[in-house]
Amino acid sequence: MFPSKKPTMNSHERPMSCVQGDSGLVLTTDPKPRLRWTVELHDRFVDAVTQLGGPDKATPKTIMRVMGVKGLTLYHLKSHLQKFRLGKQPHKELNDHSVKDASALEMQRNGASSSGIMSRTMNENVHITEAIRMQMEVQRRLHEQLEVQKHLQMRIEAQGKYMQTILEKACQTLAGEGMASGSYKALGNQGVVDMAAMKDMGSQMSYPSLQDLQLYGGDQLDMQQQMDRPLDGFFPTNEGICLGKKRTHPYSSNGKSPLIWVDDFRLQELGSAAACMGTQEEPSKSDQLQLAPSVIDSGMDMDSMTDVYETKPVLSTDSMGEKKYEGSSKLERPSPQRATLPVERINPMIRGGALPQTRNISYG
Amino acid sequence: MEEAGDLEISGVGSNSTINDDGGCAWTDWSPVIDWGPLSADDDFRGLVEAMMCDDNDDVAHAGVTRMAYDPYWNSNPSSTTTSTGTPPAEEPSSSDGGGGGNDDKGLRLVHLLVAAAEALAGPYKSRELARVILVRLKELVSPAGGAAGCGGGTSMERLAAYFTNALQGLLDGSSATACSRQSASHLDGQVGDVLAAFQLLQDMSPYEKFGHFTANQAILEAVARYRRVHIVDYDIAEGVQWASLMQALVSRKDGPPPPHLRITAVTQRGSGTRAVQETGRRLAAFAASLGQPFSFGQCRLEADERFRPAGVKVVKGETVVLNCVLQPPHAAGAATTRGAGSVASFLSGAATLGARVVAVVEEEGVAEDGNFVGRFMGELHRYSAVWDSLEAGFPMQGRARGLVERLILGPRIAGAVRRAYRATGEGGWGEWMARMGFGRVGISCFNHCQARLLLGLFSDGYQVEEDGPNKLVLGWKSRRLTSASIWSPPPPAPASVPPANIGVSSSMEDSDFLLD
């Protein structure tokens, strides 16, 4: 009922009982016919591969032809070739590396004979030349890779720009107004998102453009809430991309490593998650809380969040306007230093909605 | 679901290790599942795999080697927490005990899905049985918010929900129901939403870019010296592929000005013509912004969806390229999927048109089984891999993912299940083309390197590998998902032959590839 997804060797071969074939192949008498890759056989294999231009260019069929070994099947060769390729992976450019090793072995076997010494010296020269050639090869590959990377970047950008034009037109068609759809611009400008730009764009967001993005989950979201969440549309994407990358983003124009952004974006993820909150019950609330572990003081319990949320701005900086202060002793605990920027972000949310069901964490 | 337990199946005894807490012994259900190797992996796809795989680990073949499952990211895909200790409370009504029950639940869902598929098309042909199973499935997935999107429920549950809906669609009979449901969600002018979701998917995963960039690079190399290029595109969708091609043409440092680019989009009669025209306009505008000489045209398919090469206007001196991206359409444009005969006629036209190169992007791992359940399992595998790949990069229960799932992946799953139900099981197009005498055009180092770099921008789990000299396969953790292959047309031959009739096995010489 459940098919195996790949062909097995067993289904294609007749079991062999002979121990030594005509061509010197050593086959075992296992019920599963296995070919032993002796040194000689492997050497022939490597020769054939080299003749054909390397492991990448050679194919099992051509190798079989070149080797001319009776009893050798495509399946033997396929698997051996793959192993060979994998094994050569770190030294891909050194096609003749193994051949060199084999010849070096031979040299040693010649021992101390004078002819052996002579050939050894010659071989050393060959080795040196090889080493130089290897190095040049490596450099060439590096250079190639840089070229490819450059082109790839341009192509991704071009594609992003094009996507942006599509989305813009779609936006205009939908809303009937010629909005700037700044959100999509930022998404589109670099197909892979530049996080610095995202952050800057964030505060200037014109939320009507994001309306559309939020209409998607529309049957669950309250429109009113969406209005007050100008930053929502972005952040799932941003944050995701930022978490998905493990190294500094090649496209980010500032030097910030992705990790720094994580905290901020997690906060804004809370914002978007809060928008979902409108019609969902507890589960998403716990989602939100977990999303920003660095944010939550573990001593807090959830019930008190609202209070803390609303009163926090008062404590953090003096520049924050007076909010309705509900007075709570819990306020001493959160550290005010980290609060400034994120709180500024979230404050509009607080003020805009004053929605009772929001349970955002206001400090970061 | 106590009544389910009463139904008797001539099943084998199960040596299941699953603790069943619900009181109904689902483990006695499916007679064909080998419960032995099941283990509680953190990996959802691992669960599916564990159910299915014989261990073929000692055989390495030219394709993908099956690797052991590494529980990647150390995250349980069913949980939404990151590094806090607070347990997720997202299964309020689940009968599991939370935490460790997630794996069991995932397994149960998978088994239920397979059982439902079997019931729908298996020898028992019991639709009532299927109905019963689907009801149970819905109970299990929907309270957590399942298909309703917006991040409710676990990753597994959501995936299972979409498959449940797909199966339900089959059960409800015709595609009419499914289509009307689909169009209902579209009719609100949500095309923009779908596009935005599509953009999100593109940002989150390399699937689409991989196909486009690989094909484009191969096309670039093939038309390097020509002054006029004519691309016949089987499914232009929004024309996204050509943006980067244009950019590449314009920025060629060789010296010669960019060649004149003409794109002919193959369209179906009637539907969607306006959309294609809109696409053409957009492409023209984009080309103008780049300074790329450009023109656009359409070519209609015949009434039976067959492609007629004569319908394409060919200008003297231009070099023709065929582009065939066969990925499942995102729900925005092509609700209709064209049949295999249509694709075959298109590919066959390559010889008539004297195309220089044919680029084909298709889904990999298409199950060639003769029965529905096998193909269904294949789709389950595929989409669980896709799910996992998105989960790995974006573990947060963000709205973005919910959006993508609901608007893009959900419909694709439904379509895939439908196709699996109806189709008789065809292999990939690569084999067909080889049989038809298409030559293989080698993938250059540049192209391969580009694919690697592209994947490097995303999660580590993505892999690209060569499958033959002319094909690159993109996969997620040893699950092959999509591939791009490059071909040269066979010498002109009489009329197109539908794939089913191939009795001729032309010997495919390995030396028939051109390398750069």
Automatic annotation (TrEMBL), chain A:
<dbReference type="Pfam" id="PF00249">
    <property type="entry name" value="Myb_DNA-binding"/>
</dbReference>
<feature type="compositionally biased region" description="Basic and acidic residues">
    <location>
        <begin position="320"/>
        <end position="335"/>
    </location>
</feature>
<dbReference type="InterPro" id="IPR025756">
    <property type="entry name" value="Myb_CC_LHEQLE"/>
</dbReference>
<dbReference type="InterPro" id="IPR001005">
    <property type="entry name" value="SANT/Myb"/>
</dbReference>
<feature type="domain" description="HTH myb-type">
    <location>
        <begin position="29"/>
        <end position="89"/>
    </location>
</feature>
<keyword id="KW-0539">Nucleus</keyword>
<dbReference type="InterPro" id="IPR017930">
    <property type="entry name" value="Myb_dom"/>
</dbReference>
<keyword id="KW-0804">Transcription</keyword>
<dbReference type="Pfam" id="PF14379">
    <property type="entry name" value="Myb_CC_LHEQLE"/>
</dbReference>
<dbReference type="InterPro" id="IPR009057">
    <property type="entry name" value="Homeodomain-like_sf"/>
</dbReference>
<dbReference type="InterPro" id="IPR046955">
    <property type="entry name" value="PHR1-like"/>
</dbReference>
<feature type="region of interest" description="Disordered">
    <location>
        <begin position="1"/>
        <end position="25"/>
    </location>
</feature>
<keyword id="KW-0805">Transcription regulation</keyword>
<feature type="region of interest" description="Disordered">
    <location>
        <begin position="311"/>
        <end position="364"/>
    </location>
</feature>
<dbReference type="InterPro" id="IPR006447">
    <property type="entry name" value="Myb_dom_plants"/>
</dbReference>
<keyword id="KW-0238">DNA-binding</keyword>
<dbReference type="GO" id="GO:0003677">
    <property type="term" value="F:DNA binding"/>
</dbReference>
<dbReference type="GO" id="GO:0003700">
    <property type="term" value="F:DNA-binding transcription factor activity"/>
</dbReference>
<protein>
    <submittedName>
        <fullName>Myb family transcription factor IPN2 isoform X2</fullName>
    </submittedName>
</protein>
UniProtKB/TrEMBL annotation, chain B:
<keyword id="KW-0805">Transcription regulation</keyword>
<feature type="region of interest" description="Leucine repeat II (LRII)">
    <location>
        <begin position="278"/>
        <end position="310"/>
    </location>
</feature>
<comment type="similarity">
    <text>Belongs to the GRAS family.</text>
</comment>
<keyword id="KW-0804">Transcription</keyword>
<feature type="compositionally biased region" description="Low complexity">
    <location>
        <begin position="74"/>
        <end position="95"/>
    </location>
</feature>
<feature type="short sequence motif" description="VHIID">
    <location>
        <begin position="229"/>
        <end position="233"/>
    </location>
</feature>
<feature type="region of interest" description="SAW">
    <location>
        <begin position="418"/>
        <end position="488"/>
    </location>
</feature>
<feature type="region of interest" description="Disordered">
    <location>
        <begin position="71"/>
        <end position="102"/>
    </location>
</feature>
<feature type="compositionally biased region" description="Pro residues">
    <location>
        <begin position="488"/>
        <end position="497"/>
    </location>
</feature>
<feature type="region of interest" description="Disordered">
    <location>
        <begin position="1"/>
        <end position="20"/>
    </location>
</feature>
<dbReference type="Pfam" id="PF03514">
    <property type="entry name" value="GRAS"/>
</dbReference>
<dbReference type="InterPro" id="IPR005202">
    <property type="entry name" value="TF_GRAS"/>
</dbReference>
<feature type="region of interest" description="Disordered">
    <location>
        <begin position="487"/>
        <end position="516"/>
    </location>
</feature>
<protein>
    <submittedName>
        <fullName>Protein NODULATION SIGNALING PATHWAY 2-like</fullName>
    </submittedName>
</protein>
